[in-house]
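quick q for whoever's on today - can somebody do inverse folding on this one?? i tried earlier but teh output was garbage lol. tokens:
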């Protein structure tokens, strides 16, 4: 994600990866940049994930139709207009793995919501 963001001059304010979805807070100078970024990112990560699954998890991969897409056809962008809303969304995404029962406890997540901003 980092190299794609650098090409589009967009910092990632944070992201979390869950078993069935990815949440990312990404900022771009121009609103039109999100769709091309997501399309290319999905293309590249789909190829990478399929290669990893095929090489490292043969028994699981054999049960998956390799023509099926990894990601949904579209993404669900949400425009954020204030720092308070950024912090609200960041905190909400941070606790998502706990709510879903895939990591952490009520005291906090097992994996931190990461940022790609230096």
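ok took a stab at it. sequence:
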């Amino acid at each position: 994600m980092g190299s794609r963001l650098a090409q589009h001059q967009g910092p990632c304010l944070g992201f979390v990866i869950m078993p069935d979805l990815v949440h990312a807070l990404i900022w771009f100078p121009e609103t039109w940049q999100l769709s091309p970024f997501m399309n290319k990112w999905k293309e590249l990560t789909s190829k990478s994930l399929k290669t990893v699954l095929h090489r490292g998890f043969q028994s699981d991969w054999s049960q998956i139709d390799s023509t099926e897409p990894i990601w949904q056809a579209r993404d669900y962008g949400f425009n954020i207009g204030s720092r308070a809303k950024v912090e609200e969304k960041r905190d909400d995404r941070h606790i998502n793995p706990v709510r879903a029962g895939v990591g952490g406890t009520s005291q906090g997540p097992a994996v931190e919501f990461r940022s790609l901003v230096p």
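fwiw The CA atoms of residues 44 and 86 lie 27 Å apart. also The chain has a mean pLDDT of 76. so keep that in mind when u check it
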